[in-house]
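Q: Hi! First time doing this. I have a protein sequence and I read that you can turn it into a structure. Is that right? Here it is:
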Amino acid sequence: SVAVLQALKDGLKKAEADPSVKAVMICGENGKFSAGADIRGFSSPQTRGVSLAPIVSLIESSEKPVVAAIEGVALGGGLEVALGCHYRVAHVKARMGLPEVTIGLLPGAEGTQRLPRLIGVPAALDMITTGKHIPATEALKLGLVDEIVEENTIEAAIRLANKV
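A: Yes, that's right. Below is the predicted 3D structure, encoded as C-alpha cells:
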C-alpha cells in the first residue's frame, strides 16, 4: 500500500539521518514479511509519487546495513524489498517468490536485475519465469538468504545487524 511504501521511505531516511542508528532491520507484522502489492492499487491515483522501485533502491544504497527479517512469505514486491536489503534472515518456514508472472506481470521493482546478481541467472530465470515459491532452505542453498532460523526471526535479524 501507499502507506507502507511511505513508511519504508520515511523510516529509512530518518535512520540514515540519525547518527545513533547503526543498522536497520525491516520486518512485517503478524508473522508475514510481505505478500507484495495489491494489484488493484496499480491504477489508483493515490499511488502517484510513491512507487516501490525507488524505495528498494533507497534501501540498497543505504550506508547503514539493512537486514530483512523474513517470516511467512516474501512474494512479489515483498521479495523485491528483501532483495534491496544488504542481508536477509528467514524463518525456516518462510517462502519466497515472484508470482506476478502467473498473471502476466513482470517484477517491477528491479527484482529481475537483483535476483540474478544474487543467485545466478539459471536459478533466477526459473523463479522469475515460473512464479514458483521456494522454501527458506532452498533460498539458503541458492544464496538468496544469509541465514535461516527456527526461533524468533526478528531477534536473529537484530543480532545479525549488530554483528555487521
